[in-house]
Amino acid sequence: MSNTVAAYAALSAGEPLVPHTIELREVGPHDVRIDIKFAGICHSDIHTVRDEWGPANYPVVPGHEIAGIVTAVGSAVTKFAVGDRVGVGCLVDSCGECVNCRRGEEQYCVNGNVQTYNAVGRDGKITQGGYAQSVVVTERFVCRIPDGLALDVAAPLLCAGITTYAPLRRWGAGPGKRVAVVGLGGLGHMAVKLAHAMGADVTVLSQSLKKREDGLALGATAYYATEDPDTFTALAGSFDLILNTVSAPLDLDAYLGLLAVDGVLSTVGAPAEPMSVHAGSLLFQRRVLAGSIIGGLRETQEMLDFCAEHNLGAQIEVIGVERINEAYERVLASDVRYRFVIDTSGLSQGRSNG
């Protein structure tokens, strides 16, 4: 089994992704080698390869929504066997020893976790992601994809799914809770599905009403346009939890005004610009302004099992590897409902220029 595999990579910030080759590490005692079948496209991929989130380590092979089949396991691996259906999300390593790692929250590793791509691994080499034929990952950072989930719809759950599941669980979305989801995109559509499956009453707050039919079909009971100022008057004090999934700056005071006493506004979107808030928006109704990133491995597996139990997957458009650059442009134009997923089988037929 060759360690040289085909991939798609960004060679610089201003150029399209191109065919490439990468070298995988040898499978160590605690490692799992995965034949990648599908890889979701996350907006984070675009930010990274275009050097918008700090210096990128080119060449960059993006992709942290990975679904595939185990093809080899190390001698000390106990959780997986060849042929298992598995997934890899945003993390591939952490210290495993700090207080956060010990409680299963590797995403908040005190000593710094290792991202799936564009990061420096413990071996000193740059990590490469899911736009590739294969990947080698430490067993601890691999999740089992239940049989009830198809691999293509499961791939985006490894980022978009857990990113929205974690704060919904953290803040108690469930029966009797009124939840609003800001934005109906790659993250927002999963938030609606998950909150509905948890038993919450779900409202979508979107800039316009153009996706209203989609939102209701996904499980929302109401859909409002935030471009209409009457929305904020009509819904004042209505929600127990608002999950903000957009990466554009918001008028936080206006959205906080939609919360009931003890309500929570949790954001998973990451706008580049700072956002301000008046203290009174928090003080007078004992409201909470919170944030969240992905989830630990234990919670990610819990999320996958929950999605299988409730027959939930991402709404996807599957593309071949030759359409990655086109897909990036369409993501930037909000022209996808609601997640692109790359079928990586075309890599084996493609030429590479690594």
Topology (elements, then pairings):
Elements: E1 4-9, E2 18-23, E3 31-40, H1 43-49, E4 66-73, E5 85-88, E6 91-93, H2 99-102, E7 114-115, E8 134-138, E9 143-144, H3 151-154, H4 160-170, E10 178-182, H5 188-197, E11 201-206, H6 212-218, E12 222-225, H7 230-234, E13 239-244, H8 252-256, E14 259-267, H9 279-283, E15 288-291, H10 297-309, E16 316-320, H11 324-332, E17 339-343
Give a description of the structure:
The chain is globular and about 60 Å long. The chain has helices spanning 43-49, 99-102, 151-154, 160-170, 188-197, 212-218, 230-234, 252-256, 279-283, 297-309, 324-332; strands at 4-9, 18-23, 31-40, 66-73, 85-88, 91-93, 114-115, 134-138, 143-144, 178-182, 201-206, 222-225, 239-244, 259-267, 288-291, 316-320, 339-343. Helix content is 23%, strand content 25%. The protein has 354 residues and is α/β, with parallel strands linked by helices. Helix 4 (160-170) packs across helix 5 (188-197) and helix 4 (160-170) crosses helix 10. Strands 3, 4, 5, 8, 9, 16 and 17 form a 7-stranded mixed β-sheet that branches. Strands 12-11-10-13-14-15 form a 6-stranded parallel β-sheet, covered by helices on one side. A two-stranded antiparallel ribbon has the order 1-2. The chain starts with a strand and ends in an 11-residue tail after the last strand. It is built from 11 helices and 17 strands. The model is unreliable at 349-354 (pLDDT under 50).
